[in-house]
């Protein structure tokens, strides 16, 4: 199966054979699970959506390469529309998913700190970091630390070790 994507540098539409594997960022997931950052419903949604990541961009796309709407995500993952809409909103608040607009199209991306499909370029990490910084100006937010790795995942629980904390979590 070939997937279409837009080259960020040139703006050209390109086609590429899809990779058959996603990478779960194991160290991050160990800490995410240890501190219950996500609910069971959020984890289920992330896992099911990870099967639809576009190669090298982490955009959530259908098998034909089209960007998925929330309705299409519900159909593809067999999660009720009203439920997936709520869960996606929560995942965007935690910066696990990002939604950016290109013209009239809304494009959803999964945080490369959780899953990756192919070679993810730094621009995606920068998009999630920029979202963190924009929101941290308005809200009191902290980045989640997974071991020594600082992620752009936002944590609501003050007991979770964050970048500003000095004590080690074993």
Radius of gyration: 16 Å
- For the record, the count of structural domains works out to 1
Number of beta-strand segments: 8
The string of secondary-structure elements, in order, is EEEHHHHEEEHEE
Terminal residue distance = 43 Å
The main pleated sheet reads as:
2 strands, antiparallel
Helical stretch count? 5
Strand order of the largest sheet: 1-2
Question: What's the CATH first level?
Answer: Mainly Alpha
Shape: globular
CATH architecture: Orthogonal Bundle
Which strand-content bin applies to the residues?
Answer: 15-25%
- Percent helix, as a range, is 25-40%
Overall residue-averaged pLDDT value: 86
The parts where pLDDT drops under 50 for at least 5 residues are 163-170
The structural class is alpha+beta
What's the CATH H-level superfamily name? Winged helix-like DNA-binding domain superfamily/Winged helix DNA-binding domain
**What oligomeric state best describes the polypeptide chains here?**
single chain
CATH topology group: Arc Repressor Mutant, subunit A
What do these coordinates show?
The protein has 170 residues and is of the alpha+beta class. The protein has one domain (2-154): Winged helix-like DNA-binding domain superfamily/Winged helix DNA-binding domain (Arc Repressor Mutant, subunit A, Orthogonal Bundle). It has helices at residues 26-34, 40-50, 70-77, 81-93, 122-138; strands spanning 2-6, 13-17, 23-24, 97-102, 105-110, 115-116, 143-146, 149-154. The strands form 4 sheets. A two-stranded antiparallel sheet has the order 1-2. A hairpin with a 2-residue loop joins β4 (97-102) and β5. The chain is globular and about 40 Å long. The chain starts with a strand and ends in a 16-residue tail after the last strand.
């Amino acid at each position: 199966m070939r997937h279409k994507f837009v080259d960020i540098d040139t703006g050209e539409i390109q086609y590429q054979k899809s990779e058959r594997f996603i990478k779960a960022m194991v160290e991050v997931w160990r800490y995410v699970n240890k501190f219950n950052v996500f609910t069971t419903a959020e984890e289920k949604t992330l896992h099911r959506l990870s099967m639809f990541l576009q190669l090298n961009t982490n955009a959530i796309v259908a098998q034909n390469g089209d960007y998925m709407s929330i309705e299409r995500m519900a159909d593809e993952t067999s999660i009720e529309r009203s439920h997936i809409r709520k869960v996606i909103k929560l995942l965007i608040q935690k910066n696990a998913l990002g939604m950016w607009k290109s013209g009239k199209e809304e494009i959803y991306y999964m945080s490369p700190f959780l899953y990756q499909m192919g070679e993810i370029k730094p621009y995606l990490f920068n998009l999630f970091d920029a979202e963190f910084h924009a929101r941290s100006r308005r809200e009191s937010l902290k980045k989640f630390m997974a071991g020594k790795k600082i992620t752009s995942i936002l944590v609501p629980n003050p007991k979770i070790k964050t970048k500003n904390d000095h004590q080690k979590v074993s």
